[in-house]
Amino acid sequence: MNHVKKTFRSCVSAAALAALSVPAAFVPGVATAASPADAEQLDQAVAALRAIDSMKADFVQTDRSGQSVRGVLTLKRPGKIRFQYEKSANMLIVGDGRALTLIDYDVRQVQRWPIKNSPLGALLDPTRDVAKFGKVLQTGNPNVISIEVRDRSHPEYGVITLIFSRKASAPGGLELTYWVALDSQNKRTTISLANQRYGVPVTDADFRWNDPRPRNRR
What we know:
Blueprint: H1 3-18, H2 36-50, E1 54-63, E2 68-76, E3 80-85, E4 91-96, E5 99-104, E6 109-114, H3 121-124, H4 126-133, E7 134-137, E8 144-150, E9 159-166, E10 174-182, E11 188-198
Antiparallel strand pairs: 1-2, 1-11, 2-3, 3-4, 4-5, 5-6, 7-8, 8-9, 9-10, 10-11
C-alpha cells in the first residue's frame, strides 16, 4: 500500500472513531444553566438541524497533521447519513439510523458502531444530543454560532463542536458549515462543508453498500 493510501485510511478511520467519541445518554446534573441569549442560540441551532429533511454537501475532512480527503455527504431523516469518499480513498461510511458502518474496500473490512451512542446523533437526532449536551461558545460574530457537545462527566469520550453560519435560504436560517471532533488523545478531525443542497431527492438506496468480505467469513 502506498503512502497516499495509508494517509487516506488513517484520516478516514480517525474521523469515524472521533465521530463516535461522545455518548448520547444524558447524565443528570452534568449540564450547566445557559443564559437566555445562549439558550436562544442553542434552540435556533437545534431547530435548524431538525428542519433538514434531506441534504447533500461536498466535504473536506482534515486530520490534525493537515492531511485531507474529499467526498460527498448525504443526509436523510430519520437517522441516515453517508460519507462517500473520493475514489482514491476507496472507503465508505454509512449510517442507517441504527449503526454507523465503515467499509474499507482495500482490505475488505467492515466495522460497525451503534449510532445511538454517537455525537453524530447531534445531526441525526438533534433533540436528543445537542439539546442535552450542547453549550454555546462565544464567537464574537453575531452571524456565527458555535455549539460544543460533550459529556463533562466523561472527558475521555471527547468533544464535538458544530459551527453554523446565518443564511436566510438555509433551513431555520442557519447553515452547518463545519464540525470538529476532538478525542481523548487530542486527535482533531475537521469536516468542512460546502455547496449544501437541501430538499434534494434522496432514497434509501443511497444508504446501501456492497459488502467486500468473503461470504464464508461474514
